Amino acid sequence: FLGLMGMPRRYSNYPDLLISWNIISSIGSMISLFSVILFMIIIWESLMSKRLLIFNTTFSMIEWIQNFPPIEHSYSEIPAILIK
Question: How much is the pTM?
Fold first, then answer.
């Protein structure tokens, strides 16, 4: 809504009336910049560390056993899962 108040978009000298909105906008853009940098650092660290996963990837629930997408009306009753 800064444009509705007359704040120019691509101009470096803002009116003194809108300096507070310019500061708030600048702080928000800096927070976004730091967040993206932190996200990239986390992604980089996770790719380079090659730690073992801490959860089991062999799921035995019905959602993971059946084919995707399941065939329409494929079950006349709820299937039983036998855990070995």
Answer: 0.50
